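In practice, a research group might receive sequence data for several interacting partners and want a quick structural hypothesis before committing to experiments. The following worked case mirrors that situation: the sequences arrive first, and a predicted assembly follows.
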Amino acid sequence: MVNAPTTNSLSGPLPDPTANAGYAADHPPRVGFFTDTSVCIGCKACEVACKEWNALPADGVGDHGAEGDVLGLTGMSYDNSGGLGASTYRHVAFVEQRVPAKTSVPVELGMPLSQLPGAVNPGEDREGDATEVRWLMASDVCKHCTHAACLDVCPTGALIRTEHGTVLVQDDICNGCGYCIPACPYGVIDQRKGDGGAFKCTMCQDRLGDGLMPACATACPTESIMFGNLDELRERADARLATLHGQNVPEARLYGHDPNDGVGGDGAFFLLLDEPEVYGLPPDPVVTTKDLPSMWRHAGAAALTAAGAVALAFLGARR
Amino acid sequence: MTVRERLRTAAGVLGMGGPATRAQAPATDTASTTSTPLEAPHVAPAPQDAGARDTVARGDRLPDDAGGRGGGGRRRRKGGRGEQLMVPDAEFRSYYDRPIIKPPVWKKPDVPAYLYLGGVAGVSSSLAALGDLTGRTSLRRVGRLTSAGAAVSSVVFLVHDLGRPARFLHMMRVFKPTSPLSMGSWILATFSTFSGATAALELTGWFPRLGRLSGIAAGVFGPAMITYTAVLFSDTAVPAWHDAYEELPFVFAGSAMAAGGSVCLLTGRDAAPARRVAVAGAALEVAAITVMERRIGYSARAYTTGRAGTVLRAARAATITGGIVAAASGFVRGRRGRLLGIASALLLNGASAATRYGVFEAGMVSARDPAYIVVPQRERMRAREADATGTS
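A structural hypothesis for the assembly, expressed as tokens:
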């Protein structure tokens, strides 16, 4: 409890949420994930590694706010976990899109090229209204927000900011009130059926202390999931974005990296190839407690109105 | 700019990731013009809002019957269910129509009942305290007993709703102003203690002076009891609740006054103040919810359509009728006056419970449907961009 800043903000940029939570100045640096979806191959190794390491029970798509078929499959794509949940801390989204055929520059393999029907020369558009199928895959995870609504609204203190700047549920404290669940603007945390407690990604807190990477990042075969100090990850993300823009992938964009956004920047942020809502992410999330002072003011005004009305009702009332 | 125009413009913006992207990236935005079963349709215009199509890029159009629900595609919103929508259907993109936020795991009837009973308890304790100070013994007695009964039931419902009810005392391990549920737990615990003690002293007749002090303490906490639950709901990412945070405390306060006041007006001779509170509460509730539905934009449809809309319309009708009956009961003497009082209490309490249920249900609907997240957030982003370009 040394060097704790005297001001506590509910929103806006916050350079060091760890210190803001009361850790001493020599706390470890804030760590996070940068998930570069442009290299995700949808192998779900992250989902499996997460389940294994955290010993998470099996769950089905039905537990994530959507119905599945009798086998617990979505029947709509290769995505059969459906979303993040109390027992799914990593979720790989599969988006299948039919898009106009793109002028893709073929990779030179040093082999003689035969002109296939419909093929185009590098730099040329295909004629007419040709289309092709594009797959987007993205591994979603808890964002470990700078201003975490789940943490703010938790009435028991079960949710805490860790020394690594992440957001953690202490299972032995949680009484299952469920308030964190609708508070999360990303729909990450949920209640585990049959248990009653709230669960979400821990960023493998039990590995961080030993200098290990989280299980998902360790298992990712394409380094789509990158783990590290948040400042370094932001620099890597900027460089990757510039590279992709230079490679004629202008639809690449970062999501959750900006400390000026509605949640003060995410501890886990993403490089996406389409709009966030296409991946099931909110386009402009704002931490709900940003408006809390105003909410209390309005509630106070309403309480005074009621108190005044009750008091006035007694004035001059006949007996 | 009307809401409809704003949404049309928003629909136009939805088609593009920004001007730069649009110019160079045909991949995502100018979607196919053909329709195949595989396809994720980028835009399926809402049938009743043909005008919106004109703002959508040409290539984004699909026949109305394309109707697929592919990943990353836009979907066609279902038409209104025979009801007049305050806001037209809008187009948006989503991930297979799945919810973006997690719907609350709060149960029915626990949480609506907890809200309703907390309201009744809060108002009746304030009425009892002032009734005590002004020498209205029957108002004091009915108010104290109603307050304690409702408060204790409210606590039972709250504890029952916990995922781990045996740990309800964990609510008392921190005092946390950023958590409305923490503050609410302290308000509820303090209020219930005073209210319960007052009722016990009322029933036993012991220590009347202590009972008066304890009753006044409960009465002072009463207004907090009836309004903190609005903050509890508003301080979530649930669009219909969060967007309504300015009016929701007044809706809940009015609903509580109508319900608590009408219970207390059954005291007969002493009932004049309680009757006034019930009538004022009914008026406040109807006014606040009307203002709310006009102000909150897209989220208003959660309150006006579907089951929540039906329940809230019925609640409003019962509130207005109950308020009129309550007022009339003051002018009719004898048995008929008592019957009118009972009728108003039934109407206003039914309406109050229905309002809480309707608000709860509206929030659940808005949490399950990604439209309530994507459409307003896109509109907000567009407005911000317009501001930025306008000022620079």
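Before designing any experiment, note the following. Helices of chain A lie at 17-20, 45-54, 149-153, 180-183, 205-208, 215-219, 230-246, 292-313. Residues 289-318 of chain A form one domain.
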